[in-house]
Amino acid sequence: MYQDPTTTIEHLYSGTPVYKHELIKLLKCDDPYILELLRSRADMVRQEHYGTDVYIRGLIEFTNYCKNNCYYCGIRRDNKDATRYRLTLEDILHCCDEGYKLGFRTFVLQGGEDGYFTRDKICHIIASIKEKYSDCAVTLSIGECDMADYQAFYNAGADRYLLRHETACNEHYSKLHPDNMSLENRKECLYNLKSIGFQVGSGFMVGSPFQTLDNLVEDIFFLGKLKPHMIGIGPFITHKDTPFCNHKSGSLDMTLKVISILRLSHPKALIPATTALGSIHPNGRELGLKAGANVIMPNLSPANVREKYMLYDNKLSTGKEAAEGLEELCKAVEDAGYKIVVDVGHAKC
Ligand code: SAH
Q: pLDDT confidence of 323, banded at 50, 70, 90?
């Protein structure tokens, strides 16, 4: 049956199931009136559950060594031009100390898949942070691990885990990753994390090479099935030293549209206005908030390693994207009509 995009937005808003062809039509739509309706509905839903609150997460990029070779990623194993580094436990705790003073109550430990950081080492890091800051949440973003590893991380005190599915279509997945990686394993990890009791975040890049609108709809439907607590999406951005160096980056407008659709379909999810969004447009972060996002993840890594964690070209890590730029960020967020809060900020779902 024919549905115009306005009806699709109302269906998303009221929780009525929507069909693939309706979402495709909405994703194709460039009518400013309809796009504004989508945005304002998403903002309304976000305000219903979270008011104008914006949660901040301190991102600690603790290693850029990675055994994987994802074609899109600047810290892939075969990028010989990447200068590799690892933070020590002391470095990480120092980041947390600085972050805590600034008002961060969630620390996100993100890294490549680095064998140096064994299960025991990661558990020790988690336990050390939790011992010092029992009122804070620890989030991990360290890729695919065994169920036993995940369980050990959880037992050591980790609260949340971010693992983007990257794309929910097998064929597309195999165009973004080498043969030794599979969507099946990625999905199994996500379900394992959920069954252990983690608050789980997933997501994908918008405009990644070879992505079709069909793929995007599959991503949206997959998240509908997974029902994650957190949804991280951002534009794909080219990295000059990867096999995708000649592919163009994803667009601001499409990313904003997808954020709004996801906000409508996941009213209580925590959705960051990602660094990638902030990196492709000077107001990307603020526009992300206005489109339905309610989390920002400033960089808490030591300044001397920030430019080494280059997932994509021109990745922001200074100014409003840096923990020490928090005051500037607070002001920008307030100007956009929202407010950064000092809160552990658990998902309300
Ligand atoms: N090793 C961890 C963390 C990966 S980095 C893991 O596998 O989960 C975090 C996210 O950055 C990735 O999930 C990916 O979606 C995103 N990313 C990587 N390269 C990117 C690029 N070129 N453009 C935009 N986002 C990218």
A: confident
With contact defined as beta carbons under 8 Å apart, do 163 and 68 qualify?
Answer: no
The average pLDDT across 118-136 equals 98
pTM above 0.90, yes or no: yes
| Ligand 1 atom at shortest distance from the alpha carbon of 205 | 15
Of all atoms in ligand 1, which is nearest to the CA of residue 73? Answer: 19
CA of 40 from ligand 1 middle (Å) equals: 29
Write the CB contacts of 46 (distance below 8 Å, at least 6 apart in sequence): 263, 267, 292, 293, 294
CA distance 285 to 262: 16
Do the beta carbons of residue 309 and residue 61 sit within 8 Å? yes
From the CA of 234, how far away is ligand 1's center (Å)?
9
Cα 288 to middle of ligand 1, angstroms: 18
Q: What is the pLDDT of residue 191?
A: 98
Percent of the chain clearing pLDDT 70 (strictly above): 99
Tell which CATH classification among 1.10.275.10, 3.20.20.70, 3.40.50.450, 3.40.50.1820 matches the domain 5-346.
3.20.20.70
Residue ranges around ligand 1 (CB below 6 Å):
72-73, 110, 112-113, 141-143, 163-164, 166, 205, 234, 236-237, 239, 276, 311-312
Given a cut of 80, whether residue 21 has pLDDT beyond it is: yes
Q: Is the pLDDT of residue 1 over 60?
A: no
